[in-house]
Design brief:
266 residues, Rossmann fold, 9% strand
Amino acid sequence: MTERPKRIRAVLLDWAGTTIDYGSRAPTSVFKEIFRSSGIEITAAEARGPMGMAKREHIATLLRLPRIAAAWTEAFATAPTDADVDRLYQQFLPLQLATLARHCDLIPGCLEMVAACRERGIKVGSTTGYTRQLMDVVEPIAAEQGYRPEVVVCSDEVSAGRPAPWSNFRAAESLGVYPVAEVMVVDDTIAGIEAGRNAGMWTVAVTRSGNALGLSQAEVDALPASELDRRLAAAEAEFRGAGADHCLPSIAELPNYLAEFAAERL
């Protein structure tokens, strides 16, 4: 685990599943659809596994999964290639663009969390596995709802996406905040937590509202309490195993957690 900083001067928030799109629903259906168009059925769990990565690398990672690679080889009599990754990625982009606008609702507590950060003098930036083309759809819709982070770094604006640390470094640089140990990364994916750790930043995993459960808010609310607790515990264990410094159900709880850092300085 990262050494706990004495204070937090900036937070870097993920988008889908962390600040918008409860359950991170938008990408999952598109990944399933592009593989289905090639005659390969993948499960929602498989589609969600590499979530947080840049989308082309996400597709490449799926094609490296033994079950999917074997199904591809059986269907096409050859192992998947970089050309196949490129073709699927070209199918992904327009489909994702077509669905994005329907999945941009802010996650409850987002605006209150941002306000609490700014009241404490904490800068608010963001990183994402989405490309700039995709974020050009998302950002205006989020802004209409009142969410405007100071910085947005997209996966195609750095040399490599998550779990590489570069988007976090770029965001911290744009915010003018250092040392990076005083930056908190908040994400709902393993790749995002790994990227935060690789940047030497404090990492907070979101368990309930994002990719870990993959459920809409209505579906979460409908779960029996015991089942929800079981799933959240499993999600937290997975994030802890990936090195997350802390876990929260959603960003709605982030202000109280930030208050702990402020209290320790008194």
